[in-house]
Sequence to fold (246 residues):
Amino acid sequence: VREAKVSEPMSLPNQTDQNRWKKMVAEEAAKLVRSGMVVGLGTGTTAQFFLLALSQRIAEEGLRISGIPTSEGTSDQARRLNIPLTTFSEHMEVDFTVDGADEVELETLFLIKGHGGALLHEKIVASSSKQMTVITDESKLVNKLGSHVTVPVEVVSFGWEATGKKLQMIDAKPSLRMGKDKKPFVTDGGNYILDCAFGPMEKPKDVAHHLDHIVGVVEHGLFLGFASQVLVGGPDGVKTLQQTKK
Ligand code: A5P
Fold:
């Protein structure tokens, strides 16, 4: 695991532009959905635009799909939008998942996810999907994962301090995520999140391997080899990045 380095400053688009880009990619992704599909429904602000676009196709074109939501928030939004839902007890395989990301590594399409706190369910859905399309805007593209954001690590609340110590030993610089109520943030699975400041990673697979073997870690936000393609919104419209290697 590398020493954390100070990352170069990110030039942030203004929020109106960013929302326009998110809406644009979400609408493109919704066009890729076909009748009969089981669709993994992501979490986050970009995924919310996708749910909206999908619900419009359902209402206007009679598109028939079943959605598997990746969080309680997404499940609530889907119900409000009359998107039919299903569960893994009915469908163990997902045809097509659409989700956002916190960072996308350009060369590999490796991702950091989980800043919305839904990484465990997101990874279960992504890993059960034949295809995963990530929808994002160009502010999330990086040359090395960890350049701008921390890696969320979901841990069992029991003994989280001990798990945090093990994370410190691999130089993860963990900090406990707090909720708006100033209490530890609790995930849909009832766990805590330790946000780990690895800094830009030369070898994210090695970091993932370390995290996979720490007792108390439930899952982490390194999504390596999951994205089939990434739709990127920006001032020049939507660009598609295809996965070429894992
Ligand atoms: C949720 O846990 C995350 O993985 C989101 O997919 C990620 O944070 C992207 O969110 P936005 O679309 O809100 O940027």
